[in-house]
Amino acid sequence: MDADFDHLPPEQPIPDQEGELHPTEETIDKLFVYGSLNNDEHLRLLTGKTLPSQEGILLDHRRFAPKTSFPFVVFWHGFSVRGRLLLSVTPDIIAKLDEYENEGDLYLRRSAQVQVGSTLYRAWVYRGRINAIRPYIKKGYEERDRIEEFIENNVARYLEQKADHFIGYTREKLAVKVTKELLSEEVHSLLRQYFHGSGMPAFIIKNEIEKASIPRLNWLSEDANAQRYANNYIRLAMGFMIFNQLEEKFRQDYRGFVKVTDAYYLHTLSALMSLKLLVDYHQSLESALGQLGVDRWDPNLLYSDYAVAAIFIADELYTRSKPDYILQWLQAHRNPGMIPMGAELEFSNLGYKAIGATEHQDPTFDAFYYFYDFDLMRRGWKLGAHIDDHGFLTSANTRTRGFMELAFGRYKLLGDVSKPATQDSWVLSQIIDLAVRFINIRPHSLHLSFSTAQQQGFNEIKEADHYLCLLLLGGDLREDEQGILRETRIYNGEILNADGNVIFSRLNRHHKNPEDDSWSFVVEYQFPRLYYDYDYQPLILALKGFQSAVNPFPLRNCDQVAGSHYVADLEETLKKWATQPHSLSRNSIESFIENVEQGLDQEANLSHDENYRRYALKILGRIEERLKRRNSRIDKMYDTYERKPGSGDQS
Amino acid sequence: MIPTKENLVQVIKADFDQLVIRICNRLQKISLTHYENIDFERHQEREEAFLSLICDALADQNDEPLKNHMIELANIRHNEGYALAEVQSAIDTIEDELWDTVIACGRPPDIIINMLHEVHRLMVLMRNQFAVSYAEKQVDVQKRMAKLKERFFIYRHDRQDLEKEKS
């Protein structure tokens, strides 16, 4: 039985036991494993091999398995540990495992007695060094985390070779850091493939890294049009690179706290922490960019110089901010529910006119025409950054004008590969709000996705007012130029297709892994406006609760309703309301709220989490309050027009 | 005769809800600013709080809470990345709407003129306090980046040397 780590005495030098061998001494071809290595998949990931083995008992040792970390054994006379004895272990394999186990630091490889049946064998065993392991326990570092780190370090070796070729600047290991930043998408893609395939031959890793292109800026001196916008693109690239650096730091330093199951996007929590830091230290960031002269295009600077500046700025911000406060903030607010969710955010200083924009119409980015020239998809891949022209993307490098879109969880644009960002409404709301603040380009629209089963029977909703409640909650009521109140998402035609259909919600599908042919389905709500400084929790929970309780037809891409009168009538109602919004009846709002409450209640029952139930109830109150407030605004609207000073009607 | 400040409080409070709505609608129309992208209700919350603060300061005949608020606001907006001009244009909008409210209040002209003077005095005070605090914050942040600048300077210098060696 494993011993409780808390009862372990402080580490003391343990004298070598009689007859005990050190790594440099006699060769032994057997290894006793009891933890991470006692798993064929892990062994394959680390060594590329599966080895023959027998069950065995390690004598005179005791096993410890801290809850938040990985197991280890220490010498302990009279105790024994069950595990496996690996046979035919070659010096090559031992060398790889020594590296993984950090032999001499984290673990000591020593010989020990292993009993198999009635026979005693001499075998190597990795014995833990308590003081070296303690910090890992504190960080919540588990077996998988160590394996990931080991593989990342292996990939980094090939990066070093690449770095020597193109930068050759060795101080502070900058060349490797810069290469890692510029090839970050490729490196993470390799790591995913490594895990998915339980290993990968070294030559493939080497080849993939060798052929990955390093972005350059020398083309810019020949392109006068692009130069007009270069400052803004460089600023955006800098933002993404600093974000990437911070995200990596959070993921490394708080690995135990930011990890999620394989079903979700790996970078969500570390991205959230990074965005929080960047927003909290916004002016420090701006000042740093300005003082280093990297907030604009400088023909004397290479792309890699900008990457160096990003690394320096990230170091400075991270050190200064004492990032533990962000972890505490995250831990104090998390409230995971049961439904996987995602979000896509569209940005453009042209607003809805971004689609079909002409050359130079957007004085800041030319509607992101040069996005790929500045290699921004690779810079912003962790946030799923790409250009959306509301057409079909055929290549990652096709120039087009449109919105810049962030798609959380979409880690491979081509092939439409994405995972849900989170199941936590607070996390989703925060990451949306922080991304809007961080990007600092006019926010335009928000798409919110909720996982669903493809075959799940959708229902026809008789009450159009339920859809109006959603629109009231997530749409954009504002005065037009003539001072008339409109719901602008529909009224401006922002969510109408070429046939005039309202793209309110649709059934959508994604691959979860590049190697996977199967699809996962989501209902995607496309009507919400993306705001600055906004709490999205009421909208997210309202959609989730409504979806869970009522499961309405998505209005697009759903075979069950294609071409039906029901959808056509509903769309007409939505358009009329958007043109001339009227307040909704108390009964409609109450009925809508009841449905949302029922859905959230179902979710809380499934989660068996009373904290989540309390959280959902609190937000339900905000949903109701927001609906009533907006309703009352519509009621007051005519009163306002009548009483406007100077209107001549003071009655 | 009712003092000007008291008069002004009465006029603002009588038109409070509509005044807030008008300000919010106008703020949402200031192109290419943060204000344009803020939801109406969020504007409403902010402006209700702001106008209440003005009324309290007038009623208490004490400008200090307003000054303190502007110092705090400068800190927040500076960190959020608002340009100074953005906030100044928002203050202009509020002043415009306050003027409209005062002019339409139906009081005798001399009282209206006194109230307009008072509105202007308050707005100048707030505008100035905001600008000073915003600038102080800017200088403070810049001072803290000296080491970073040096580190990048050394890098650029080394890299240039490296290139010279290569060539």
In short:
The complex is a heterodimer of chains A (651) and B (167). With 651 residues, chain A is of the alpha+beta class.
Outline the secondary-structure elements.
The complex is a heterodimer of chains A (651) and B (167).
Chain A: E1 31-33, H1 40-47, E2 53-64, E3 72-86, H2 91-100, E4 107-116, E5 119-128, H3 130-139, H4 143-166, H5 174-182, H6 184-196, H7 202-211, H8 224-227, H9 230-253, H10 255-258, H11 268-280, H12 282-292, H13 303-321, H14 324-333, E6 336-347, H15 376-379, E7 386-388, E8 403-407, E9 410-412, E10 417-418, E11 422-424, H16 425-439, E12 443-452, H17 464-474, E13 477-479, E14 485-487, H18 488-491, E15 505-510, E16 520-525, H19 537-550, H20 565-579, H21 586-607, H22 610-643
Parallel strand pairs in A: 1-5
Antiparallel strand pairs in A: 1-3, 2-3, 2-4, 4-5, 6-8, 6-11, 6-12, 7-8, 9-10, 12-16, 13-14, 15-16
Chain B: H1 4-14, H2 16-27, H3 40-60, H4 64-80, H5 84-103, H6 109-143, H7 146-166
Helix pairs in contact in B: 1-3, 1-6, 2-3, 2-5, 4-6, 5-6
Overall geometric form of chain A: globular
What distance lies between the first and last C-alpha atoms of chain B, to the nearest angstrom? Answer: 87 Å
Approximate strand percentage of chain B? under 5%
- Tell me the β content of chain A: 15-25%
How many distinct folded domains of chain B? Answer: 1
Outline of chain B, from the CA principal axes?
elongated
CATH class of chain B: Mainly Alpha
Oligomerization category of the chains in this entry = heterodimer
Q: Tell me the Rg of chain A in angstroms.
A: 29 Å
Can you give the mean pLDDT of chain B?
Answer: 93
Largest two-chain interface: A-B, 50 and 41 residues
Range of helix content of chain A:
40-55%
CATH architecture of chain B: Orthogonal Bundle
Low-confidence stretches of chain A: 644-651
Radius of gyration of chain B, whole Å: 22 Å
Instruction: Give the structural class of chain A.
Output: alpha+beta
Structural class by sheet pairing and helices of chain B = mainly alpha
